[in-house]
Amino acid sequence: MPTDSVRASAGQYAARLIATVDAPLDPASADAPEVRHWPGRELLVQRGDAELVVRDLDDPAAVVRFPAPWPRRFGSVAVSPEADLAVFAGVHALQAVDPTGAVRWELRHGCWSAAVCTDAHASFAEYADDYYHGHADSGSAAFSSDGKLVWAHVRNYAGEDVEEEWLILDPADGRVLARAETMTVGSGSFHSPHPNPAYMGLTVGEGDEESPVLWGHWDGAKFSIQRFVEEVFLAVSPSGEHLVATDPGQWSLYLRRAEDGVELRRLNAADAVPQSGDDRPCWDYEAAFPDDDTIVAGIESAADPRHWLVDVRTMTVRGRIDYPFAISGSPRSAGRGTWYTAAEDGTALHLWTLQHDG
Q1: pTM for this model (two decimals)
Q2: What is the three-class DSSP state of 113?
Q3: Exposure of 111 by Cβ count < 10 A (0-12 exposed, 13-18 middle, 19+ buried)?
């Protein structure tokens, strides 16, 4: 997956299609495919009700399938950089599964259901047909960039007084290495890995206008967390120096220094891009950071998705991205100077870089 240089052309930038990768599962019974990436490693992942399919983008013939312990509506899933382990984050448990379907370990936790459930369910079968469990909130999990840690957002066994925790686990056996209260009441969450395996981002959705970002650091002994109120994590720069986020209202992009979380600059959507009709411009909840100097950010629009090139050094818009055909959805990082968009029908991913002049 090569990286092209960034060059301006009269305020408009041509995107070059690197590849179109077909989704391995039928979108009628599977989530949309995604790219999970770490330094030097890019995987296409797609979750179906019965399995998780993982494909190496550098070797399309290298496909790994993980049998799923429960249908996709019951939680989310993380996959290791080597595609040798998947951790399913469910309503009542984290379960680590290898490609044969063997359960390497399980960590049971408090229920994510909105109904009061204080049972320590021993198996999915005990609540598979329960309405509230099938429509539960959810936590999430992610592997560190080196694959040696699993970070997980769970609920504990506090009964009616639910408390949420952020755990750091050993992927070999599920042993908890560190834990901290998140002081959140989440309806859903997602992790954002950093190139340095000691760091991880966690966005916790607490409602339409509530969302903190937790920025975690673990040095092997001390687990420290910074909290950014009312933000949604979007992407981390390839070097790991910078983070970019937006607010739940999608008014601005916030550039932060990863080392200490200090806000360096921000970019208001209303000041950066033209208004479309009567609607004020809003940044998407997803963005790409293809190189350390460039952010590809989308403006939310169901009818006409627009992506813009943002200069990290000044947090100003250089120009609009020009695609060779109509695209849908938001730009998302794909590693090594690239980003991706998903086909509208969920059957494929398109991988992009900036057009090299000459």
Answers
A1: 0.93
A2: coil
A3: buried
